[in-house]
Amino acid sequence: MKTKMMSLASKLTTAAMVVSMFAMSMPANAAISLQSDVMSSYVVNTNSSHVITFTTAAAWDAGDTITLDMSAVADITAGWALTDIDVYAGGEKTLVAAGCVADEVTATAVPATDIITLSLCAASTQIPAGQIVIDLGATATTGGAGDSSHVVNVGTAGAHNITVAGTQGDGGTIGVTLTSGAATVMSDKMGRSMISTASSHTILFTRYSPWNAEDTITIDLSEIAVLASFAVTDVDVEAPVASDQTLVDADCDANEIEVTAVGSLITLELCAGSDTIAAGTTMVQLGSVAAGPGVDAHFMNVGSTGSKALDIAGTTGDVGTMYVSLMTNDQIQVTADITSALTFDIDTLHAATCTQAKPDGGYSVGLGTLTPGTAKTADNHICMMLDSNAQDGAVIQVKSLNEGLTSASVSHTIVGTYAAGATTDLSSAVEAYGICVLATTKAAGSEGSDPQQVLPYNGSCVVDAATNEVGGVDNADFQTMVNTNGAPLDGDGYNTVDVLVSAKALSTTPAAIDYTDTLTFRAVGTF
Fold it and tell me: With contact defined as beta carbons under 8 Å apart, do 3 and 241 qualify?
């Protein structure tokens, strides 16, 4: 049963994860909008960086100021420096403490009042109304490494406001909530967000209290999921993350965690005699993400849409709330049609082998004069290119007009009778005619199958006809010569099949100059 979990001490409040926005007071011009402050820590009396964002309704003119009154949220220490702040307003601004020139911004802070003042230098180009982002502390990196220890959260938990004002004219407040040691950095990564659907959960939160023996952490899923057939195998606990804890559902021993569920409330209790688990980040996995293996169907999303709360509590002292959103449907079906495609081309080439380039040698193969008793292979190669996205592959087939080399003038045929299971060895044959596949190729790195020769066209086949083993040609039906092994083939523009034509005459074969045959090739894809 895996995983050990950590105690959540302090209070984990809703504001630890969510930045609140409050209605703002309106200075002379208008109120800022879309304002937020993302802090690295929401715990009282701790160092924290800030990413403060707001949108102005009016332009920022040269000589005008924007002030941030941080006094309700943070203490700015005497060590505060220019490197502790970055400002973005229509692009990143160059900040100076003094000696201001056009298009720079002076940035000053008064520790006694905790007010930061930003002044657009004289003769600067007007900055239009829009978003302004201010980084404080460790998030400020442009002028040097910012130091979050120069911006320290006040000691009072609860809702607080940063006040934005100045001669620029727009103003308002940005609300944040500080906690007295609550778990923060909370999230629930759900496998599915659709109502009435089984879903896994990966729940992360940071505890600020140790988890002592016999203390509990509770996870209340009642707004999110209905638990059915719950088992300890449905849960993994890592406390800290990457440190699996041992889980049991009874007979709890030291350094184990007992897991129980009542309704949709899961309770994790660190067994008596256990070592304390230090404060830190804890991960609880539910459903299929748990290695038990867990079952998503045991965590069925409720049937109503909207924002749903997941509450963390227990005797460790850490409490807090995170939110997930359930929706009517969380999936979009994407469809597409792929057009069936098959490209087949044949040519002849007078060369050692077929090449990648499309040959242009016409559509005839000449064997020339056959010397009785001596096999001969035509100089011209038959070059074929095949591409097909047929799911079950494609084949190249051949059919003969005459089933051999036929002379009308002497009424004789040098036969090439097709035999499915055997090749004809021209070195020993008396009289024969047929074809063999010299090579099949596929472009390097291209997709799909490698084409292969099929009996009786896969025998020994070289340019030297005396050693060739050929397959006969049939005039009754097309015979398969090459296949792609039941898979699509991407020839990528290469000639994928190189075919040779060979024949051998007898000393008694009637002389004539009109021996001929016509070979018809076709490619067939199975889609």
Answer: no
